[in-house]
Amino acid sequence: MKPIQSELKAWMDKNENFKTNYTRIKNEILSDPSVKAFLRDHPELTDHDIEKNLMRLYEYKSQSKQCDRCASFGECQNLMQGYSPVLSMDKNEIRLSYEKCHSRIQVEEQEAQQKLFQSLYMPKEILEAKMSEVIQDKSRISAIGEIISFLEEAKSGLPKKGLYLHGSFGIGKTYLLGAIANELKKRNYSTTLIYMPEFVREIKGSFKDDSFNEKIDFFKKADVLMLDDIGAELQSAWFRDEVLGSVLQYRMMEGLPVFFSSNFDLNELEKELASTRNGVEEVKAGRIIERIKQVSSVVKMSGKNRRDE
Ligand code: ADP
Ligand code: MG
């Protein structure tokens, strides 16, 4: 069997039309500035090498390079979205490979940032809460002062204590937690914010299945943990001691901050924690309160119920 190249050449010699087309396309490829630049850098390539690799050069020519022809990541025109072609030499072969383009790298970085604020079952307004939009009236002044110093300290490392924000319903405790989480995101800290009744449900739902330890670990190890609305849902002694107690114990030992919001002050919370379906267990409740004090500083908030507005 004759080599395919010479077969092709013979065939082309007989087919003028094809030959003209082929020559036109070849000239187009070779006059492309990016292909030209590559060939200029590799004078060792013979005509034969170029001919042999024409398809690769064509593919290289046809693709947008580092977003030069794409308006945005979403409008990427390349064969593989977000990948830019690169030509190189491998021994005497021209190699065509693909690398991530600038836009793809940027999008991936943004996605990674987004993941830093994981919140479970939180409304959109909380996810988008901004410190700059928190109204600084008298009733919030001490909470805001504490938050500002926490965020200031966080510039040079994560503080060991978060805050225990307590006060009546509707005064913006949860909103403040969301705003803090968004500030921490800017500093590359990961925050997990969860509504306490959902935390209980989530953990109970995975009890005895494979994800149980994984979930507990997730709450133990987040840079910053925020437990929203801690209080009356803790009638289960098992959850109080084995889940909440162990998560707080771990974070206390590791010096990882926890934020809480609650309608109860610590004395009231202690009473809530003591009364479970097992009866009144003051010592065990006291143990949890001690841990809460180790991982957070208590701040009382007041103000009007913003839900009425
Ligand atoms: P709490 O957790 O104390 O019960 P929330 O944080 O849920 O209160 O706040 C009650 C309502 O007021 C929510 O709808 C919340 O989005 C809104 N809110 C609270 N603080 C602010 C604020 N600083 N700016 C805008 N809206 C706020
Ligand atoms: Mg709330």
From TrEMBL:
Annotated AAA+ ATPase domain residues: 159-287
One Pfam family named in its UniProt record: Bac_DnaA
Chain coiled-coil ranges: none
SUPFAM superfamilies: P-loop containing nucleoside triphosphate hydrolases
InterPro entries: AAA+_ATPase, DnaA_dom, DnaI_N, P-loop_NTPase
Domain of life per record: Bacteria
Name of the protein this chain belongs to: Primosomal protein DnaI
Organism name: Oceanobacillus aidingensis
Gene this chain is encoded by: dnaI
